[in-house]
Design a protein that fits this description.
Blueprint (H helix, E strand, L loop, with lengths): L1 E9 L3 H9 L1 H5 L6 E6 L8 E8 L2 E13 L3 E6 L4 E9 L2 E10 L7 H29 L18 E7 L3 H8 L13 E7 L8 E8 L2 E13 L3 E8 L3 E10 L2 E10 L8 H25 L1
Antiparallel strand pairs: 1-7, 2-3, 3-4, 4-5, 5-6, 6-7, 8-14, 9-10, 10-11, 11-12, 12-13, 13-14
Length: 298
C-alpha cells in the first residue's frame, strides 16, 4: 500500500468548500488533464459518481469515481474503479478552510505491486498539488488556473527481449500462439477476448479484449502485422496499451526457442518512468515465459 497526503488553505467557509466538493463532477474536473462525464449526483452525497478520462504513463485511462462516505462539512471518501481511494477532509482554519487530500493506492500483486505503487505515487504528487490549487482557485475565484508545470518530452522505455527454451516442437508452440484465444491459458496474461477474427493466412488476425497488467485492467486492440509460419509473428497493439510485440519461434536441439520482444511506445513524461516500466515488463514477461514453457511441455 502507498499513501500520499497534501493540504491547502482555502479562503472560504467550510460549507462553501464542502458543497463544491460534494459535486463529484466539479471536483474531478479539477484534476489535471481530466475530462468528466456521466455525472450522477445523490441528495446525500453517498453514491454520487462520474466517469473520468485521463492519461498516465502516456496511456489513455478511464474509470469511475464513486463517493462511498460523505459526512457533511467534514469528510468525503471516493473509490475509483482503477484502484485508489481518495479522502477529502475539511477543517476550519483562521476563518477559512484547511482542505486535506489523502490518496491510498494498493495493488494486490506480489513483488510487482510495490514498485508500481511507488511509481504511481511519484506521478501523483504533482497531480494532487495541482488539483488542490485548482480547487482553491475554483472556490475562491470561480476559475481553474492553468498548470504551471513545464512541458516535458515523453520518455520511451528500452525494448524488452526475453528468450526461453521449450521442450516441444516449433509447430506446436506456433500453432498455440497464433490463436489469441489461447492466451488466457497463460496465467500472467489474464486476457478476456471480446472480439476475435482469425484469418486463414494469419496476417490480419485481430482482436479486441481486456488484459490485466499488475492488477490494473486495460482494453487492448491487437493486430497481426507480420506472420511467417512457424517462424515469426509481429503484433501491433493499440487501445489503452501502445506498442509492438515480436514473437520468434526457432528450432533448438530437441525443442525450440521462443523469443518475446516488446517495443513500447512513449510511456511517460518523467525520467523515472522508463526504467521502472522496463523492470516491470521484464519481470512479468519472464514469469509469462515460464508459464508458457510449463503449459507447452505438459
Amino acid at each position: 500500500m502507498a499513501t500520499l497526503t497534501r493540504s491547502i488553505t482555502i479562503n472560504a467557509p467550510v460549507k462553501k468548500v464542502f458543497d463544491f466538493a460534494k459535486d463529484v463532477g466539479k471536483l474531478w474536473a479539477c484534476f489535471e488533464d481530466c475530462a468528466v462525464r456521466d455525472v450522477e449526483l445523490k441528495p446525500e452525497g453517498v453514491g454520487s459518481s462520474a466517469r473520468w478520462f485521463s492519461h498516465m504513463l502516456g496511456i489513455h485511462m478511464e474509470g469511475v469515481i464513486e463517493y462511498t462516505e460523505v459526512v457533511p462539512n467534514q469528510r468525503i471518501v471516493g473509490k475509483s474503479s482503477t484502484g485508489p481511494i481518495w479522502k477529502f477532509t475539511f477543517e476550519p482554519e483562521d476563518g477559512g478552510t484547511k482542505l486535506t487530500v489523502d490518496c491510498e493506492w494498493h495493488l494486490a500483486v506480489p513483488v510487482v505491486g510495490v514498485p508500481v505503487e511507488a511509481l504511481i505515487m511519484k506521478l501523483s504528487e504533482n497531480q494532487i498539488e495541482t488539483t488542490t490549487a485548482n480547487i482553491k482557485a475554483q472556490v475562491e475565484e470561480g476559475r481553474v488556473p492553468r498548470s504551471k508545470k513545464k512541458a516535458a518530452k515523453a520518455v520511451v522505455a528500452a525494448p524488452t527481449t526475453l528468450k526461453i527454451h521449450i521442450e516441444a516442437p516449433v509447430e506446436k508452440v506456433f500453432a498455440f500462439w497464433a490463436n489469441p484465444a489461447n492466451w488466457s491459458q497463460v496465467t500472467q496474461m489474464k486476457y478476456t477476448m471480446k472480439e476475435l477474427v482469425i484469418t486463414p493466412e494469419g496476417m490480419g488476425t485481430h482482436y479486441t479484449g481486456k488484459v490485466k497488467v499488475a492488477g490494473v485492467p486495460y482494453e487492448v486492440k491487437g493486430h497481426f502485422t507480420e506472420f511467417v509460419l512457424n517462424e515469426r509473428i509481429v503484433e501491433t497493439e493499440s487501445g489503452h496499451l501502445l506498442g509492438t510485440y515480436v514473437y520468434g519461434f526457432e528450432p533448438d536441439g530437441s525443442g525450440m526457442q521462443f523469443t518475446f520482444e516488446h517495443i513500447p511506445a512513449a510511456i511517460g513524461k518523467v525520467p523515472v518512468v522508463g526504467p521502472l516500466f522496463e523492470w516491470q515488463a521484464t519481470h512479468i514477461g519472464q514469469k509469462f515465459l515460464e508459464d508458457l514453457k510449463k503449459l507447452m511441455e505438459s
